[in-house]
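Input.
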Amino acid sequence: MGIKIRITALAISILIISGCSNNSSQPDVEMEHSDMNQHMEEMHDMMEGHMSHDEVVPLNDSTGENELKIPAMLEPDNEEGIVYTVKAQKGQTEIFNGIETNTYGYNGSFLGPMLHFEKGDKVKIRTINELDEETTFHWHGLEVSGEADGGPHDALQPGEEKVIEFEVTQEASTLWFHPHPHGKTAEQVYNGLAGLIYIEDDNSKSLGLPNDYGKNDIPLIFQDRIFDDKHELNYNAAMNDDGTVGETLLINGTLNPKLTVNQEKVRLRLLNGSNARNYTFKLNTGDSFVQIATDGGFLNAPVTLNEVTLTPSERAEIIIDFSQFNAENDLALINEDGYVLLPFEISDQNGVNSEIPGELNDFTLTEEEKNLPVTKKVELFGMMDMVEINGKKFDPERIDFTQQQGVTEVWEIYNKPDMMGGMIHPFHVHGAQFKIISRDGEAPPQNERGWKDSFSIKPDETVKIAIQFKHKGVYMFHCHILEHEDNGMMGQVKVE
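Output.
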């Protein structure tokens, strides 16, 4: 109660100050008592929502009763060129035993398959909307033209389809795809629209890393959800303007998952696919693991860590050496609060004896890039439905920035604190992989010195990135708390 009183007093003082700040002796307009009450109610509701996001509902421990589901690898169509068909569909899914709930999925009722590309592939994807509402197909992290990117301008109406074509020019990485219709992204992702993309190249195939899909190369899509008293999904009841979080974790759509592994090194491809929750991943034993890749490719060398934090849309590839453990060990992936995310069941079988190379990539941030002047400034501010970038909400008719194709520029992103202190925002740019130059003037940590398309930014923090677009088009940049994105925390850059 004391917090609410202090907030109200602060809000009143702000309103009084704003009412008395007119330079003339008589205010132009007097604030009616009813108007002040309305302002106070709006601010109180806004603060309540903001506080509920700061004090995030804890997750339930995974009981480990269900073996982790592995997304199927999508086979190409039998047509000329590499052609995939990806359908956005509605259906029903049994998440809790014996109970079906309405869900969305790609080529199925919930989540989607994994698309496998190799660098140099010329790819065609036939996208089909079989939903009862418009949607888009956004290829998160993929460097494609604006016309193929699948932003809010590219909505497909129910029953429509579109074929996109592109050449894969970027290096090995773990990407993903999801919808991006303006104002509906959060709900459609929440209902199940998300899938994976793997890119391989000559370098990745030569490193000898674990690469047996579903055996020692495991994708992990982390998504928290709220289920109602009937164990069904209901986004409208669960939705929070400051980011929808839930107490029930699904990994690859699996409730209470466990992962059975052999005694070998296992590569885990972590994707934070949640609407708003941040995760700090660690082992319950305190043992270390190594991170080998960021959003858009390999690090130059493995980085040994005891934990790694991912905000919504970020990815990291890590390797855990299970040959150090046996079936008697109680081992699990946990979060920062100690809640069990994924228990491991270690078999008595020896797996592949692999080594992690000391050199993985030749990623460089040049002195020239470090010393480029800042040409674009992005200020993130607000909470709930009062979010903005550079003082503006998203307008599909407004171009916020322009940039030349193939030219590297430095963007400076600042997270402006609000009266509650602010919150972490995950910042994402479409159509490009970029390099983090600095955080508050200091070099980024070792595990961020690789290609990125998303990053976390704390309140009052400034991050500089060097970014180049390979293709032309209009691309979004936005907060990847999906409700913030839907509420207008998004801008547009036109690449010419």
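Helices lie at 2-20, 33-54, 146-149, 185-190, 202-206, 235-238, 367-370, 482-486.
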